[in-house]
User: What shape does this take?
Amino acid sequence: MSLRICVFTEPHRGADYEDQRRFAQLVEAGGFEGFFRADHYQTMGADSGLPGPTDAWITLGALARETSRIRLGTLVTSATFRLPGPLAVMVAQVDRMSGGRVELGLGAGWYEREHTSYGIPFPSAPERFDRLEEQLAVITGLWRTPVGESFSYHGDHYQLVDAPALPKPVQVPGPPIIVGGRGRKRTPGLAARYADEFNMPFKSVAETARAYRRVAEACDRTGRAGAGRPPLVLSAGVVAAIGRTDEDVRRRAAPLHTKSALPPEDAVVGSPAQLVQRLGEFAAIGATRIHLRLIDFDDLDHLELIAGEVLPQL
Assistant: This one.
């Protein structure tokens, strides 16, 4: 089995910058491929999430200077939060700050409550997906415009006129773009057209396999291979709550039972061997990358357990 393993975190549950810095540096020391974080401004449950939210791209800019090897990115940045031109500048700058280690996960946005709380417009689902598609076109267009040339775009929601398309990211033609989710209609097509990686978050192996088939069909329809583009990386999000003892497992699984706005998830709860088995099942359906969601930033032993007893078997 050959899988690349990243750690995915949710700082909106309650983590300040220092918590994230400590965790990311341990992710790097433990041999994981990357540190990814959610882009949310509010918790999904009744808890307060103290000390409060941290902005994803400000945080990743700082982590770019405090790590040296791991990949850094979002799963996923909400297209409702930022305009595509400034977002392209932000991500390119963090890519330069990291020496070319950044990845952009981009989605349509879904959690209405945080939009209402912070005064962020929350259009209908069809419009959010329209905006996501235009943002993908704008961001990739800006990054791929040669130095010295300008970029213009005329869409229904965004218009750019003679943008200098700077700064350029270190990675060429740009940082890898991740598109994912459970959507059956537009998501596969957007991944086929714009993404480098398709991610299916936190569902069963069978559901993930069906999503991979939909994306493969979309790649065929859009002629991705004929255009000379490399195959999509297929990845899966996996919620993990494992331990050396039953008590460790119960403690780590407890947050999975709290009421949340998130849809049901297929978590791995048990031993390191059970996690290795599940990852092998994902590898068998074509996944080459896994984003392990770990909840507690203070539970460094959980991270060290996975690094010591799971990673060596992959």
About this structure: The first helix runs from residue 17 to 29. The mean pLDDT is 96. The radius of gyration is 19 Å. The CA atoms of residues 152 and 161 lie 5 Å apart.
